[in-house]
Write a structure and sequence with these properties.
Elements (H helix, E strand, L loop, with lengths): L5 E11 L5 H11 L3 E6 L5 E8 H13 L5 E9 L8 E3 L4
Length: 96
């Protein structure tokens, strides 16, 4: 696999995404897709994530994040190109 096959994105997810298991849902889905990155709640009520891995897996993760777990209501997902994370695996980060 060449570096061209890897996509790294920063996501900002808006809507009813806190206190509904959104981060755990994303951690489990990222694990199934063997993606690297992290996720955290933000003080403005959004959730921020950095996700990195093979492009098709990242696209699948973005689609899942746009849907969210039961109980969540996604209003908007911003996507920005990003540098890949320095650590392997997908982790929960402290809220910011």
């Amino acid at each position: 696999m060449t570096g061209d096959d890897i996509t790294s994105l920063r996501l900002r997810i808006e809507g009813f995404v806190q206190a509904v298991g959104f981060r755990q849902y994303c951690i489990e889905e990222a694990g199934k897709l063997t993606l690297d990155g992290w996720i955290r709640n933000r003080s403005d009520g959004t959730v921020e994530a950095l996700v990195s891995g093979p492009t098709p897996a990242v696209e699948t993760f973005v689609a899942l994040a746009m849907r969210g777990p039961a109980g969540s209501k996604i209003k908007n997902v911003e996507l920005h190109n990003a540098e890949p994370p320095t650590e392997k695996g997908f982790h929960r980060r402290p809220s910011e």
